[in-house]
Design brief:
four-stranded mixed sheet, 7 helices, 4 strands
Length: 132
């Protein structure tokens, strides 16, 4: 369940914005939620209208952009989308932090991760149809 979108509550947390109507996204987020994070994480399901209605950050991407790509908002309020968002999330999770550290340490790897994520986004509609 999503909590109200108050910045004081989320200020010390990583906020993860995901498309709860996407079967692939739901499965992946369910996996992450079963883990005990290394830092507080607040999960924001964008398929719930109240999530977007309560999003009061003027720097936030619009709802369409949030639904089109994975996004996180860090503890200081900066937005990270696509592969950069996943790297932020993975850095907060057990075992996954190793992958995040490896990708960030390799020259060019974050760029390649973003290219791979963009390719996945092209395939996402077909993969979603199969997952239903």
């Amino acid at each position: 369940m999503n909590q109200p979108l108050s910045r004081p509550e989320a200020a010390a947390a990583l906020e993860v914005f995901f498309d709860g109507a996407c079967p692939l996204c739901r499965r992946e987020i369910a996996h992450y939620r079963r883990l005990t994070p290394r830092q507080p994480i607040v999960w924001r399901d964008l398929s719930e209208p109240a999530t977007c209605a309560a999003l009061d950050d003027p720097r936030a991407p619009d709802r369409a952009a949030l639904l089109a790509r994975f996004h996180v908002r860090d503890a200081v309020g900066h937005w990270h989308g696509g592969a950069a968002g996943f790297l932020r999330l993975w850095a907060a999770l057990p075992r996954w932090w190793l992958l995040a550290a490896a990708v960030q340490a390799l020259p060019g790897a974050p760029w390649l991760a973003e290219r791979a994520y963009r390719r996945f986004l092209r395939w996402r509609p077909a993969l979603q149809a199969r997952a239903r």
